[in-house]
Amino acid sequence: MHDLIHEMGLNIAREKGSRRWRLEDIEDEPKAVEGLLLSFDYDENISPCIEAFKQMTKLKMLIVKYRVHHLCSSKSHQESIEAFKDIDIVNYLPRSLMVLKFSYYPWSKLYFPMEMKKLTYLDLSSSKSLLKTPNFAMMPNLVNLNISNCKALETIHPSVGNLTKLVKLNLGHCNLAKLLSFNQEMKSITHLDLGCCSPLLETPNFATMPNMEYLNLSNCKKLKEVHLSFENLRKLVSFDFHGCSNLEKLPSLNQEMKGITRLNLKNCSSLLEVPNFAMMPNLKFLRLSKCEKLKVIHPSFGNLKELVSFDFHRCCNLEKLPSFKQEMENILYLDLTDCSSLLETPSFAMMPNLKFLRLSKCEKLKDIHPSFGNLKKLVSFDFHGCSNLEKFPSFNQEMKSITDLDLTDCSSLLETPNLL
């Protein structure tokens, strides 16, 4: 459950004790109700509750569970559905409402007849029939807005650009080709999710969101470029572009982005160049797998001393990695599987704590850097399908940690390693 809903529920519980409202209680005392869960998942007639809803003038939190495939077939349950359809529930929402969670909202639009100044949380996710969002001018203090997975959504009301208190905006899995412009600086936004908006052609201007921390643009398959203002997101912690198959490059980074610890560019099959890693010195997790057009890695990669894991598997045009300029003692995992053009491995002397090494199907690889013999903490290494590999470097010490070794289909191998 989202933190805001959880906190709201606790506050109501503190004020009212641990009393549980039954249907007959709600029918008798609707004006006392502050939190309500309307669930259509169970075979129960909740028609009286729906009628009593009109009198709930103190309601602060409303959660509606409405999913057609969960509906039961009893007469009482069908009566509940019909009652719910007949009442225009939004017309009876009180001004006191703070949380409205209504996933699978069954109608094409949502209209608020009056200003809802206390509403801070609105969730309309997975509303398959929703064509238009409400006018957000009627809820100026929204903090969290979730309209993800609304596949039929055609437009977002331009008033969303005035929600200056918005912290989290989730539009993932919507079929939106572009976003509306934000009319003023949105200093509160820290989370923006546009993942799987496959028709998306352009990103918003990030200059209006200077405090962004988490950005998800994964699987935006038509996206070719990212707005230049991206370079100014100095507070960014994580950004995910995986599956952006038309993206060729990211904007240049002209200032340090010290907060970034995760970068995911997996399946960016058109990517021609990676960013300058000198601008993200605290990067820990890097995924560049299946970037099939990528030929070189920026030399600044060799200075990522905080790096724990990097994955370059199926970068089939990559010939080599940059030299490491300092010890990368945090690196535990390295995956270069299916890098079929790879001619040489990096020097392992700079990653003394490496535990897992994947070099399978590196078909042009003929030898391994001699420093490989010093990886005393290695647990598993996989070289299967390295058809040109003839031998391994000598091991200079006992490799007690190794539990898994795969040399399958190394058809040119003349001798196996001595594992002491």
Describe this structure in words.
The protein is mainly beta and 420 residues long. It has a domain at 1-101. 9% of the residues lie in helices and 12% in strands. The chain has a 16-stranded parallel sheet, with helices on one face. Helix 3 (47-52) links the parallel strand 1 and strand 2. The longest helix has 14 residues, at 3-16. It is elongated and about 85 Å long.
Beta fraction:
5-15%
Structural class: mainly beta
Helix content: under 10%
User: What order do the strands of the largest sheet run in, or round the barrel if closed?
Assistant: 1-2-3-4-5-6-7-8-9-10-11-12-13-14-15-16
Chain-averaged pLDDT: 86
- Strand segment tally: 16
